[in-house]
Amino acid sequence: MLNDKKVLYSAMQSTGVITLGNYMGALDNWIKLSNDDNYDCFFCVADLHSLTVRQVPAELRKRGMDLIKLYIAAGLDPQKSCIYFQSHVSAHAELAWILNCFTYMGELNRMTQFKDKSAKHANNINAGLFTYPALMAADILLYQSDLVPVGVDQKQHLELTRDIAHRFNEIYGDVFTVPDAYIGKTTAKIQSLQDPLKKMSKSDENPNASILLMDDTDTIIRKFKKAVTDSVGEIRYSDEQPGIKNLINIYGAVNNKTPEEVVKEFEGKGYGDFKLAVGESVADRFKPIHEKFDQLSKEKDYLHKILKENDEKAAYYANKTLRKVKKKVGLVENFR
Ligand code: AQP
After folding, report:
1. Residue 5 a catalytic site member
2. Are residues 325 and 98 in contact, defined by beta-carbon separation less than 8 angstroms?
3. pLDDT digits (tens, 9 = 90+) for 255-277
4. N- or C-end of the chain: fewer Cβ atoms within 10 A?
């Protein structure tokens, strides 16, 4: 779109401090892919999505800025990748409304995340939670994205985005690029440390279930030591040992090793040694991120400058698509 490069798009909600799951399933892949010169990248803080769950305003504001800092601290280059806030580009909300009119109730009803989050927030099942996938489709389609790196939990939403794009294109011609998902093999779903059959989540109420990107070394090691495993006592990569399998996936991802290589490395070792090694590897990976984060926290002017430039860049490309969509559906041109 911007030149001959492909467009890569992804986002994270500012609903909490991001977890090792968000890092491995999404952010780490963003960093790798953004270093590939074949892509123009857009990485958004999806603060509008965060409103589908009740938030404390001051905390939401802080977490949004912290997430921008974490993107950069973890390795995204804001000169190269467009890092911005969803709420700063009004085209997201405008296109979401239009796409709502091209999304069926039956489709939204089938979304497993809606079912899960409705069960979790039974006293606040709002319309935004239900139409979340139309806003997500707008996020992605506004930038004519080719590739969207996500964890496996977002696969269903991405498939719906593709269906909406196809539906719109069939009626109005080739307006949207139909995006593909990019899902890592072993890091597509990092599981909770306390219930290895459940996804690791920012909003998990059990603090020992998730490793947070801002956890210090001692906390990380303590949480891994407490990780729920099994009574088999052997380090094997098997669905029958989901806790150990999860730890193998984490250790392999941090150390760039296949599950088979990890199993070989820890042959004959006990769970205690293995858990400690996983904890130390993760802590070592996070340490430089914390240092960069602290340094960025002192550079407010720099961050504001980056955000201003990137908000403008995002708005430029988003509005280009939005203008086209408005024209296609029959809205009268704005003469302002
Ligand atoms: N456990 C996970 N393993 C791998 N990938 C994951 N992602 C989330 N959890 C895992 C991926 O992280 C990206 C950002 O997620 P999000 O902020 O859009 O929200 P989410 O998917 O709802 O993540 P959480 O942590 O579970 O948030 P809450 O608790 O607020 O609902 C996505 O690409 C997601 O796939």
Report:
1. no
2. yes
3. 999 999 999 999 999 999 999 99
4. C
